[in-house]
Every structure is written in C-alpha cells, then in structure tokens.
Amino acid sequence: MTTLFLITAVVILASAMMVVTSRNLVHAALWLVSTLFGVAVLYAILNAGFLAVVQVVVYIGAIAILFIFAVMLTRREMRDTGPGLNKNWWVSALVSLLIFGGLAYLLSSWNGFSRTSAALPSGFDAVSALGNALISPDAYVLPFEVASVLLVAALVGAVYIAFNRK
Amino acid sequence: MIPISWYLILSAALFSIGLFGVLARRNAIAILLGVELMLNAVNINLVAFWRYLDPVQMTGQVFAIIVFAVAAAEVAVGLALVISVYRNRKTVVADELDLMKW
C-alpha cells in the first residue's frame, strides 16, 4: 500500500508540474488527465470507490475533454506565442513556495498530524451510506439539490455566453 | 499504514503547483487548468479526512461530490467565457485582455 501511494504521489506531482510548465496546451491537458487519474487511484486507496469512478467519468471523461475542445477552438493564437509563462513567473514561484511552506508548518503543528486510519467497521457499505446521506432529509438532500440547480444554471449560462449571435 | 500527514503534504504540494499555474501562465485556458489542480488538492484533503477521522459519517464524501459539481460548473462557464472572448478579441492571452484596465 505504501509503495502504491508513493508511486501515485510521484505521478501526480510530476504530471502536475508538466501541466503548469508545458508550452503546448494540448500536452498540458493530457498531463492533466494523468494527474486526475492519479487522484482517482488515491481515492481507491482511501476506500472511496464511488468517488474514484466519478473522478474518472466526470473529470477525465467530461472536464478534460472539454479542455481539449477549448484548446482546439482557440488554436490559431497558439501558433505565435511568446513564452508560456509571464515575465513575473519567479514571483509566482516564490509565492507558491511560501504558501506550501506555510501550509506544511501549519499542518505539522496539528496534534493529529501523524494519526493512522482505523479499520472500517465490518459490514459497512460506504456506497450505500453515501447514497442514503445524499437523499435523506436529515442529512444532505438540500446541499445536493442546490448543487444540481447550480450545475443547470451554470450550463445554461455557458450556452448563452458561448452562443454565436449573427 | 500510511499516516494522514502524507496525504496532507501531497495535497498542499498539488495546491501550490496549481497556484503557480494560475499566477504564472499567460494563456487563459492554462489558468483554468491550474484551478482544476487546486480543486483536486482540496478533494484529496476532504476524502483523507473522511477516511481518517470518522468514516461512518459521510460528510467528507458529500463535500467532495459538491466540489465535483462546482468544478464542472466552473469549467463550463470559464471555457464559454474564453471562447466568447476569443471570438471577439482574437486572443486568449490574459495580458492582452486589458479592456477594463485603467
């Protein structure tokens, strides 16, 4: 399990670096697919099988493909690019490193920092518990419906914005 | 067993890489790619806390699913804006979109 985690972590971080540094945006989108797949493997290691499947179907199947479509629809611009990063990129790198250091310091001062996971209770079915939590009125049915309405509104808005009026 | 600290450090690193992408890239689509990396880092944290703190309560997974929905909405609207801007201005480089700059 530990080896699997370490391999996945290396894949995630290396392909995330390629996402933010590669100049060709189609390559960046394909590296994003590799990162998202690594995150799906992490969900599977964490016993969240449903989320691993949703990650593959929604993120890789829909969002990454949407990115590739958008890159291809705006491709003419990419032929005459200058550098992929703006000229103050080192300030951004410094800010990111500071944020990482601050987060690591903050997390390491938490007293549960090195706790390990307890075994799941025997007979516990995470998928059916998640389904019950999403539709039960005492749990999360209201946030679930709000998320659905948000998604519909956002998609209608996206169609309206991108619609080509002649 | 893997301690929770490994997941937290991994997701902090992924968040910082995504932040670098958002701040440093010139192309608007690449900025949205950085936002996706940051949202994934948040999701790793949520699922790791669900598994390590109280797996019988499904709060962490429900939050992760809502983050999925918000990410899909964000990407749809963001890419629609980029395509609309490209149609009007013939550019997707963020430096050149300075119409509202004083």
Give a quick set of tags describing it:
heterodimer; A: 166 residues; mainly alpha; Four Helix Bundle (Hemerythrin (Met), subunit A); 0% strand; B: 102 residues; Helix Hairpins; elongated
The Cα radius of gyration of chain A reads: 20 Å
**Helix fraction of chain B?**
over 70%
- State the helix count of chain A: 6
Please report the number of helical segments of chain B. 3
What gap, in angstroms, lies between the N and C termini of chain A? Answer: 57 Å
Task: Compute the average pLDDT of chain B.
Answer: 89
User: In angstroms, what separates the terminal alpha carbons of chain B?
Assistant: 56 Å
What's the CATH architecture of chain B?
Orthogonal Bundle
The residue ranges of chain B in which pLDDT falls below 50 over 5 or more consecutive positions are none
Number of strands of chain B: 0
Structural class by secondary-structure content of chain B: mainly alpha
Number of strands of chain A: 0
Which series of helices and strands of chain B comes N to C? HHH
